[in-house]
Amino acid sequence: MGTDSTSASRDPARPSSSPSEPDLFSATYARGPVAALFSGRSWLQAMLDVEAALARACAADGLIPADAADAIAAVCDAGRFDVGAIALDAGAHASPVVPLVGLLRSQVREELADHVHFGATSQDIIDTAAMLLGRRALEHLLTDADALAQACANLARTHRATAMSGRTLLQLALPTSFGLRAAGWMVGVREAAADLRTQGLAVQMGGPVGARAPGVGALVAAELGLSEPVLPWQAIRVRVGKLAGALGVLAGVLAKLARDVTLLAQGEVGEVHEGSGGGGSSAMSHKSNPVAAVSVLACAKRIPGLVVTLLAAMEQEHERAAGAWQAEWGTLAQLLTLTGSAAAWAREMVERLEIDPARMRENLARLESEGVAEAAEPERHLDGALALIERALETEDFR
Amino acid sequence: MGTDSTSASRDPARPSSSPSEPDLFSATYARGPVAALFSGRSWLQAMLDVEAALARACAADGLIPADAADAIAAVCDAGRFDVGAIALDAGAHASPVVPLVGLLRSQVREELADHVHFGATSQDIIDTAAMLLGRRALEHLLTDADALAQACANLARTHRATAMSGRTLLQLALPTSFGLRAAGWMVGVREAAADLRTQGLAVQMGGPVGARAPGVGALVAAELGLSEPVLPWQAIRVRVGKLAGALGVLAGVLAKLARDVTLLAQGEVGEVHEGSGGGGSSAMSHKSNPVAAVSVLACAKRIPGLVVTLLAAMEQEHERAAGAWQAEWGTLAQLLTLTGSAAAWAREMVERLEIDPARMRENLARLESEGVAEAAEPERHLDGALALIERALETEDFR
Amino acid sequence: MGTDSTSASRDPARPSSSPSEPDLFSATYARGPVAALFSGRSWLQAMLDVEAALARACAADGLIPADAADAIAAVCDAGRFDVGAIALDAGAHASPVVPLVGLLRSQVREELADHVHFGATSQDIIDTAAMLLGRRALEHLLTDADALAQACANLARTHRATAMSGRTLLQLALPTSFGLRAAGWMVGVREAAADLRTQGLAVQMGGPVGARAPGVGALVAAELGLSEPVLPWQAIRVRVGKLAGALGVLAGVLAKLARDVTLLAQGEVGEVHEGSGGGGSSAMSHKSNPVAAVSVLACAKRIPGLVVTLLAAMEQEHERAAGAWQAEWGTLAQLLTLTGSAAAWAREMVERLEIDPARMRENLARLESEGVAEAAEPERHLDGALALIERALETEDFR
Amino acid sequence: MGTDSTSASRDPARPSSSPSEPDLFSATYARGPVAALFSGRSWLQAMLDVEAALARACAADGLIPADAADAIAAVCDAGRFDVGAIALDAGAHASPVVPLVGLLRSQVREELADHVHFGATSQDIIDTAAMLLGRRALEHLLTDADALAQACANLARTHRATAMSGRTLLQLALPTSFGLRAAGWMVGVREAAADLRTQGLAVQMGGPVGARAPGVGALVAAELGLSEPVLPWQAIRVRVGKLAGALGVLAGVLAKLARDVTLLAQGEVGEVHEGSGGGGSSAMSHKSNPVAAVSVLACAKRIPGLVVTLLAAMEQEHERAAGAWQAEWGTLAQLLTLTGSAAAWAREMVERLEIDPARMRENLARLESEGVAEAAEPERHLDGALALIERALETEDFR
């Protein structure tokens, strides 16, 4: 046993004394840059960014003195706060903002304390912070989605005339080209990503019951680079629902790509392989597992269940919900994290995908043996595929 | 055309002339005009509309003779077919199109049989028919959503200065105005409906493995008034996922409205009532139940579960999925039906909603007794609400 | 009349004498005997069965005269009522029971009218009717599940020593036997079905607010062969949640079986085929599609989304929910129907499954060529599989 | 500071250099002892516990020397390993077990390395570790559920004759007693918890393709106190599905309790209050928020979406799934954590709930004013409630 082993140290229910508790499955679920955005410290900093922007906006609007805003903004640095202590105190309020505002007030001169969090409510801070993090997450996500689409386009161009058997209902069907398959992936990724580019991530600045006049909100929006909503959206969660839906659609496309890769990489099919050796097995040394595809699917399969939570949580009471809003926080963070991870894995998967035209030809021969004449000279039947690929590359500007 | 064929007989929303077995719960789940679109006969007619458009497109493209197209289109009338028999035969093929095409061929002169369903596959017909029905459903849905938004706007305008207590976490909070609540409903409905106006409902015309050259598809799209996709989308289900997400978001907003109505209509709150007496009870004659709100919620609560099915079903194999595609048919139909019913009920709910400013004032007095000074003269605290309402009405063009 | 009434007109599974408008997709989604249970007429008859049992129970308890009970029971025949008219009137009450009770009262002598529906509320009738239909549905479902398990056991026994390649992460792995695969299916089906055998389907007889003393409920339970709950469960939906979960688990197992069949039936794998020719294609005559497996998956993939609806709907307010309860009706009916259809299709799928040991051997040769020595003489590595199969057959009493 | 801050310490995408990243929302989502079970270190220790048990079982079965088992078990201490490094290496294999086994082998004498992980596969270790953690989680969960049921029973007994208005469809209905409401909660909790007591949490010890002979598995099961399955259940996930369903049902009951508390605690209703002052607001000092109820709902509303993920993931391919299995790991951990948190919060909520019989009486007066005569002397109408409460307390052994 280890040096510090006692029976107590083996009790998993005992709170850990060490501050570090990495997730053992983060390589699968938290690949790429999105996950880090939703650490406790990053959430805290985003909330402080909102408090700072609010102070500046209030100063600009003449509601608090300019030097109060400066003093407040100067202490809006997560490094000054104990994330764990705030998280603990949050329990008594069902909100980390209540203890945060208290601490923030204690960090400025006493006479400035009332200028902190001026006219705002917990929901203003949490919702706006979530939108800030959401925007950063979407930037990362779209970077990976664009690279993924590019990698698909490259395959489409290179393999436009690489004949393979189309398959329907998991049966060999008729010849097509691998390039068309890859073009379909590309178009799917692009069409799904398009909706992520147009999300109206907006500031929340409604005050206690959503009736704050628009002025300060507009200024905060400008400070933070978020859009300004027509009305505070405290219990009208269209933004959250739309974002969830769009992420769910992208995840669905990523799952489709990864499912195709796992199927084409089967030993009996062998038409594609994940390059760089793929992943090993703890029991079978000969195997080369489609690790990236499996990881995409591991993430993507968790996403529809998160979307359903957010859509069902749109049923929010009055000016602030009792439960449905609070259920969003962790769900949205996880939804963005898992979609980010799926996108990062999918990009790697396609970027390193190796195509085996010879095996495609062998499988076409099996199709021919099933009596499909077109499989004998498949290249003669690719005109439609070629025209479609050209159109897709042109439409999506991948020439 | 069939013996009873008139142009009316081609209207898929027309009730079948044969008596049907009603669903005992249709008043709740199938209110409004959307449900009828998804009867067996209406689905069949939509498929026949696609076959007719395909024939005309093939003729225009020189693939089949023009008179063949005319002959085919002439028999594309659901009244000529036995829906039940087709449904039964569909089981052996996991598709109603296989028996339908057989019957369609038998309805034309023998030498024209090969011109029927030319170059198409089952999925072309079912997917395009679903998009046709979806477009009609969205038209109905948007009509109700627009009327609902108008009714909300009317309440917002009328009650802009009707003071009520805002409520957060289901606790009395601070004064606001009922008009702002109604304006929030209006904006939510409009923002959710906006995504339904821009759905890219597109033709599917990819042939057996999705590699059909684009020409015929463009002609079919023009015939049917659908858009033309960059590529066939047989196993790339972005369109279905986006439609599902957008319907889920609208349903979430409708649930929010109905939840508010049920809460405000509580006996102890009494701030709103469904007009026209509300619904009776089989056991308690004194009760006036918020029937429309309950019905909205009965529909809306079923919708996230349908969205999750469609998002999870985006993981489709190769050129046509074995199971995930076939799971869409009934799910999408039900999703549109239930959203249509929720919208119809929500419109009625708000159009007949009665507001009780006196009870609002009584509840503000309770808030005052809890020590909230603003509740004594709530009108003095409505400036923010008034400004927001004006902006909302102006933005959404409801002046 | 009692539940064992021999009158054919009382059999809720009997197709309505009036022609119905068929669902075009019923062959996929509504195979087997469960679907008919949830027609409008069958629901209505189940509600009338409850009203009749209630009348008898009230008479037995001395609450109403015995001849009143006889007179009421005599008219509790769905054939006497217009389903469509009741469905229509239900809209004004968010319940079909309100109009039904009115009509039922009009069918008996005026002085008996007050004895109809004595002390009951809409929810008593609908919930108890749902449990009655649920019990009948489970009987059908378990019949199919048992036959399916038997078919799996037959395959396990016959093919205990039929070597095939095991596959992990969709890669060829190490030899196993097809019999073990089939034994795994069998055990999965049996373990999932076990929970369906022990569902506590109970009467609901709480009266308007769930406070009715237990006597009448016990008598109604005895009349109908349902169990008696400790308390009325009007807004405590454990029974519905458990039933949903158990159906979801069975559906998950069925999906696993069908997924395996689609994968093993791939052209490149070819280890199993659905017998009887499989299904045809509207475009490709050479294809033999795994129609039963596809149909299982089409149903099973719709089921988790229905379970999530019912679990989320457990959040019910006070003594009767405003929306969440009403959302259950159609969802539970559809959940049972789709699970019934999936089970019927799965039974057919396995009963007619054809196994191709030669292709299994060919695929093992490919595994051997990948350097797996065990694949050369796979029979020498089946000891574990054989022992497991024996144990499984013995445990589940399939020797 | 602004959003464009250049300080590196503010870049949320930069991997944190500090090891600690507490979740800012853990007070809401991770209350009670369950959450700690699913830290990286606890998962790792559980996997090592399985490796140690496997070594001992192999020694007992004569497969490896006894001293090898001792040596292996001696190093199966998570304190000897770097969780973060294993998590990182896991990415290349879609499994943390591959790097773990490598490190474990390096910790024992070279000639013993082959005795580590003898005959096992990654899935054996992960699945068995998950079941170990699941068992511990259920123990904690049931402790809280039992205490919650006891607290409900106490309320039922104390308030058996405390009259209140029953409410249906959120309308005042007829008198009942608060004790009956509490008894309903108690029965719901007990019935939901019952299924958690009978989960067949079983060892997984099937080896690479699930064909390992039963001997070693039985010994490992005995070592770890888990049950032994009939067959390895690598891709037959009935256990996971049943556990998910049972947790979903308990969460549904907890949501019902919390929803009732939020409704009864409304300012206009005022019949219950969370004791100990409730939670404060960052903006409104007068408010006493139902923090525990809100927290229960925040957790419980996230649970159906996790159940749907696990049910949908039951569709697993062949002997080990490519994606669906890997999606389970984080989902199951989160499902147990959130249910554990909801149960801990619900116990606190009911244990400190304060009842206000005077307000109940006031609300009954409102009911009377609506014309309900029974509300004038509600005690005369509690016979049914009293009988039901007695039966419930007796049945559940809470006298």
Notes on the structure:
Four copies of one chain form a homotetramer. In chain A, 56% of the residues lie in helices and 5% in strands. In chain A, the strands form two sheets. In chain A, strands 1-2 form a two-stranded antiparallel sheet. A two-stranded antiparallel sheet of chain A has the order 3-4. Chain A is elongated, with a radius of gyration of 26 Å. In chain A, β1 and β2 form a beta hairpin. Mean pLDDT of chain A is 92; it is low at 1-20. The first copy, chain A, starts with 25 loop residues before the first helix and ends with a helix. Chain A is mainly α. The first copy, chain A, contains 14 helices and four strands. In chain A, α7 (178-197) packs parallel to α14 (383-395). At the A-C interface, β1, β2, α11 and α13 of A face β1, β2, α11 and α13 of C.
